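G., the chain you wanted modeled:
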Amino acid sequence: MSQKFYRLAAFEYLADTVIIKGRLESEGIEVFLKDENTVNSDPLISNAIGGIKILVLNEDKDKAIKIYNEIRSYAVGDNGQPLICPNCKAEKLEGYYSGNGIFYRLFPFFEKRKFRCFNCNIVS
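Predicted structure as tokens:
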């Protein structure tokens, strides 16, 4: 009997995942962290493997998304103000790395900084 999981989010650092995991578990949602031990043993490969993934059961997906959207933090500019989507003008942007090509997977810090809007899903 196998259970199906939904990937809620992925983070570069364990501290980010622990905060969200704690909140979800306090709401009765079972949470699994994929690649947690791998990143803990070698933090430099976090970007190469896609970070630490937060997984929830499919049956908890909608509730988990709602809670995550309430507590997630969005990207801010150098002045501390939220970044605005050029397409829909929403203030719900988050850092985005495409990781296309083996070079950017091995050296993600060379990739130009991009942001993805959670409102319209555009990458800019």
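The longest helix spans residues 14-26.

Shout if anything looks off.
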